[in-house]
Design a protein that fits this description.
Layout lengths: L6 H11 L5 H6 L18 E2 L5 E2 L2 H4 L17 E12 L3 H12 L4 E4 L12 E2 L4 H6 L6 H11 L6 H24 L4 E3 L20 E4 L10 H14 L3 E3 L2 E8 H4 L3 E8 L5 E12 L8 H7 L28 H8 L12 E5 L14 E3 L13 H8 L6 E7 L1 H5 L16 H14 L3 E3 L2 H8 L3 H17 L20 E3 L2 E8 L10 E3 L5 E7 L19 H19 L2
Parallel strand pairs: 3-4, 3-11, 4-8, 11-19
Antiparallel strand pairs: 1-2, 5-7, 6-7, 9-10, 10-11, 12-17, 13-14, 14-16, 14-17, 15-16, 18-19
Helix pairs in contact: 4-8, 4-17, 7-17
Length: 576
């Protein structure tokens, strides 16, 4: 008897045969569709080259990808038990925990499940236009209208401005709430340093206002203290009567009335016993499961430019901390798509990317001195934040760059600042050079007494690279960058030995957005109809960002999409 493959098995096999990327979408349109008889209904014909390669056309491009095909429903007989709550939050990062704590404070019965073994976080910058910390430190709020206009322009005005309004109308209240929660537990918060005004002044389009809040301790500086926040939030949630179940992975949403009604539950699997439990939510299921960057098919469809930075083994660890090669596999996004959720309108999705850190750069800046590509050629105006430096690098051959500088850079490009609290003192020239020497010792930088030797150590084409350095020094002496129009005060020559260099690549952090989301943070269908009972917070919120995460409103994802939206949504759901 001949074995038969169903549509799902066929797609899975096709995806494997094509390394899991791209081809599954084309084959989806070629699979049989039954029309009541034994003959398959014809769809768009697949054409191919003489070598047998499929040729994509418009109809095939709209076909389903394998990640969009729902798995078979988990039968009731496989479900060990049903657990009830008013609100079920899926994910133990900043956004999920803020939502859960905010709702529990208002008396809601909250259950949080997470595939991780503990609360998860990375970094530590939480944006607020104003707060009691800013008032305490005498820091004035920035001009919101001016900066909102800039962000809209940078996003081609293609962001959901209703969500932005909701965020900033609640941002100060939400940040003060978080500050109170932390400081009541002995966790201080302060402001994080940003790019110094000597690099990007108030009239510069890349100016970064002082607005990022961070928790800190002896072990964490304010830019990396998010673990302090999420661990405290998890403790607070349980003190407020909320329940947390770690190592419990959400696998399928239950949408009533044959996927046309409200979402009433989520089925999750215990990662230790592999048993299934249905978690019924009388008010809402809130998805806070992070990004989809570790699923290469999803990245191919929704953020293809970042694929070269994603590792093959990304997404295997739900407790992943700081990582630059992919985080999660889009579990929440897929569950939403399987029950009829639409995707956000902006595609490609907005990546959070910058350049590998540790070069001779100020906080939140790329290397603003001379940078060459792998061919030994200068390729851009280097006066840029690390986000824009990273995007320029991604256009270069091999997607690598080579910052080159000399000892005089330490004194002529100051004052220098370290990452950390905003009130840290300036670094001395000696401290800057000592930091470079430490990185030479660790292998991150190379050092040479001559430019010829430096170029050889960096394995750059010698003649071209030396000519590029000479040309740059000529422009520095002239006081005008004829090639890329960099600001004159940013033109520091590569002059005094010893000389330094590094090889750096793009640094991927996450990809923003996903499921279509309205201003109330409800997940919507393609026709914008809200799916009752289903919400998202955090990185998953659709159409909040576009183009590139700029870092010009430092910590906006944490302070906005995670803290503010989590705080507001928790209260709104508790009041239902």
């Amino acid at each position: 008897m001949e074995a038969k493959l169903d549509r799902r098995d066929f797609l899975k096999g096709a995806a494997v045969g094509a390394a899991g990327i791209g081809v599954a979408s084309m084959l989806g349109a070629c699979t049989p569709q039954q029309n009541g008889g034994d003959e398959p209904e014809a769809t768009a014909p697949a054409t191919s080259t003489t070598d047998g390669d499929l040729i994509l056309n418009a109809e095939l491009a709209d076909s389903k990808w394998s990640f969009e095909i729902p798995p078979d429903p988990i039968p009731d007989s496989d479900i060990k038990e049903i657990v009830e709550a008013e609100i079920v939050v899926v994910g133990a990062g900043t956004s999920g925990l803020c939502t859960a704590v905010s709702a529990a404070e208002q008396g809601a019965d909250v259950l949080l499940i997470s595939a991780s073994k503990a609360p998860v976080s990375r970094g530590g910058s939480n944006h607020a236009i104003n707060s009691k910390v800013m008032e305490r430190e005498g820091v004035e709020p920035y001009d919101l209208e001016k900066f909102m206009m800039r962000e809209r322009i940078l996003a081609a005005n293609s962001v959901d401005q209703k969500k932005w309004s909701k965020l900033f109308n609640n941002n100060e209240e939400a940040m003060n709430w978080l500050i109170d929660l932390m400081e009541e537990r002995g966790i201080p918060m302060t402001l994080e340093t940003c790019a110094p005004e000597v690099v990007f002044g108030p009239d510069d389009p890349q100016f970064i206002p002082l607005a990022a809040h961070g928790a800190y301790s002896e072990d964490y500086d304010p830019g990396s203290g998010q673990p302090l926040i999420v661990n405290a939030l998890a403790e607070i949630l349980q003190e407020k009567g909320g329940r947390i179940l770690f190592e419990t992975k959400g696998v399928q949403l239950i949408r009533d009335d044959d996927n046309t009604g409200r979402v009433s539950a989520i089925i999750a699997q215990d990662l230790n016993t592999e048993e299934y439990t249905k978690y019924a939510a009388s008010k809402a299921v809130v998805l806070a499961t992070g990004d989809f960057s570790a699923d290469k098919e999803m990245m191919k469809k929704y953020c293809p430019s970042m694929l070269p930075l994603i590792a093959d083994d990304a997404g295997e660890d739900y407790d992943v901390g700081p990582a630059t090669t992919g985080l999660y596999k889009g579990d929440g996004h897929k569950m939403g798509l399987w029950i009829g959720a639409g995707w956000q309108r902006n595609v490609p999705n907005c990546p959070m990317v910058n350049v590998q850190q540790g070069t001779a750069a100020q906080p939140y800046c790329g290397h603003c001195g001379l940078t060459l590509n792998i061919n030994g050629e200068r390729y851009s105006n280097e006066h840029a934040t690390h986000s824009y430096t990273g995007r320029a690098l991604m256009l270069q051959p091999g997607q690598v760059s080579f910052p080159i500088w000399a000892t005089n850079y330490a004194s002529e490009y100051g004052p220098w600042y370290a990452r950390g609290a905003f009130d840290l003192p300036e670094m001395t020239t000696e401290e800057v050079i000592a930091d470079w020497e430490d990185k030479v010792e660790s292998g991150r930088f190379v050092k040479a007494d001559t430019l010829e030797e430096l170029v050889e150590l960096l394995e750059l084409p010698k003649e071209t690279a030396l000519a590029s350095i000479a040309r740059y020094n000529e422009l520095c002496e002239k006081g005008h960058d004829d090639d890329f129009f960099k600001r004159a005060d940013q033109m520091v020559p590569v002059r005094d030995a010893p000389f330094y260099g590094a090889r750096v690549g793009g640094r991927f952090l996450t990809v923003m957005g996903g499921l279509r989301t309205n201003v109330d943070l409800q997940v919507c269908q393609d026709d914008d109809t809200p799916i009752e009972g289903l919400y998202v917070v955090g990185t998953m919120v659709g159409d909040f960002f576009n183009n590139t995460y700029t870092f010009l409103m430092e910590g906006l994802n944490y302070g906005g999409c995670c803290v503010t939206f989590g705080y507001v949504l928790g209260r709104e759901l508790a009041a239902k």
